Amino acid sequence: MEDRIRIIEGDITKEETDAIVNAANTTLLGGGGVDGAIHRAAGPELVAETRKIGGCPTGEARATRGYRLPAKWVIHTVGPVWAGGNRNEDNLLANCYRNSFKVARKLGVKTIAFPSISTGVYMFPLERATRIALEETGKVLQSDREFTDVIFVCFGEKVLNAYQKIYKEVFH
Ligand code: AR6
Questions:
Q1: Is the CB of 12 under 6 A from ligand 1?
Q2: Most buried among 106, 128, 133, 161, by the most CB within 10 A?
C-alpha cells in the first residue's frame, strides 16, 4: 500500500493528478489559503460551478471540473474548525477524507492529491490532523485497488516534516 502514497512539498494547484482536493468552506465560494489558490488557478468558471452547487456541510465533499488547472477534477471538502477537540472535530475531519475518496471513486479518479485539510485558517493541530489523514487513507487503500497514487502536497517544511514523521508512525 505504501507504494501508492507519496508525500511531497509543493503547491497543489500544479498537480497533474486526476483530481485535487480543496480545503473549502461551507459556501464553496472560495476564500483564502489553498481554496483561494485553487480558485485563482482554475479561473472564474470554478466559482460559477460551485455557486450552482449551493454549499456543502462540514465533513462532506462535492466535485467540480478543474477548468484551467492541470487536474481534471476538484473535490471540495469542508474541514472542521478546531474548537478544542470536543466538538467532533476528529470525526468530521476523517469524514472529509472518506467522502473525498467516495466522490473520487464515483468519478473514476485513480490519482488524487490532498492538502492538509483544516490545519491552516481552521487551526486543527497539525500532527493530529496528519494522523487522521494518513489513517483514513490507509483504510481506503486497503480495500480499494482503484487508487494508484495518493499524493499529500505539503505547503512548507513544517507540514512536510509532520507528514514524514506521522507516516512512519502509522505505516512503520
Ligand atoms: N497548495 C497546497 N497547500 C496549500 C496551498 C497550496 N497552494 N496554500 C495553502 N496550503 P487553509 P483550512 C496549505 O487555511 O485550515 C479558506 O479561507 C496551508 O499551508 O488553506 O482547511 C477556506 O475558504 C495549510 O497547510 O485551509 C476556508 O474558509 C493547508 O493548506 C478556510 O480557509 C490548509 O490551510 C479553510 O481552512
A1: yes
A2: 133
